[in-house]
Design a protein that fits this description.
single chain, about 240 residues, alpha/beta, TIM Barrel, 11 helices, 8 strands, about 45% helix
Length: about 240
């Protein structure tokens, strides 16, 4: 899919009814939508089909991480739902990553396959606690290079790592970036964040934004304001 938007709105709602109500309040096709673990676990494939039927690009954010055959089958099941983007944990290893990529051959259009590197909620201390001695930035680059070698389309990384990821893998290598906050907003449970303008200046492709839009008193106005900020940053 040709990029016609940069914003992916995270539908972190407890029910499909609430999620679709939010979608109805936003300008059609002004953004893509992310369906994550909570919403998918409660509502299942029907919520994805409902969004796809409306012509909305859907990022199915389930972060697959399992043995290669299981992940490959899950990616095929996601592709059959008509999603635009899916993701897998790069830490699943090269065999798993190649199996995921191979499973999507022949799908038209083929979903984008994005690798999850280091969650934006994790700090260096968190990585050390699970036996990873490197910094978040160092670990992101290590996993990014692996994802690139295995044929993925891009990675999920924090705004702080976008420039280094692009330098390592090229300008066409996609970045999907959570942790986007306005300068005055609460960090919530994020550690490595940036404003929309800063993420775009760094070369970010897709910005995942949840609470700053979904919990705004006027979500449509919040989306329009962030879209305008991005457009200004793009020059």
């Amino acid at each position: 899919m040709k990029r016609t938007h940069r914003i992916i709105v995270a539908l972190d709602h407890p029910t499909g009814e609430e999620a679709l109500a939010l979608v109805s309040r936003l300008e059609p096709h002004a953004c893509a939508f992310k369906v994550g673990k909570e919403l998918f676990t409660r509502e299942g494939p029907p919520i994805v089909r409902a969004l796809v039927a409306r012509g909305q690009p859907v990022f199915l954010d389930l972060k697959y991480h399992d043995i290669p055959n299981t992940v490959a089958a899950a990616c095929q099941a996601a592709a059959a739902l008509g999603v635009w983007m899916i993701n897998v944990h790069v830490s699943g290893g090269p065999e798993m990553l190649r199996a995921a990529r191979a499973s999507l051959e022949g799908w038209q259009p083929r979903p984008l396959l994005i690798g999850v590197t280091v969650l934006t909620s994790l700090s260096g201390a968190d990585l050390a606690a699970v036996g990873i001695p490197d910094s978040p930035a160092g670990q992101v680059l290590r996993l990014t290079r692996l994802a690139h070698q295995c044929g993925l389309d891009g990675v999920v990384c924090s705004p702080q790592e976008i420039a280094a990821v692009k330098q390592a893998c090229g300008a066409d290598w996609l970045t999907v970036t959570p942790g986007i906050r306005s300068a005055e907003a609460s960090l919530d449970d994020q550690q490595r964040v940036a404003t929309p303008a800063a993420a775009v200046h760094a070369g970010g492709d897709y910005l995942v934004i949840g609470r700053p839009i979904t919990r705004a008193s006027d979500p449509a106005r919040a989306l329009a304001a962030i879209t305008a900020e991005i457009a200004s940053a793009e020059g």
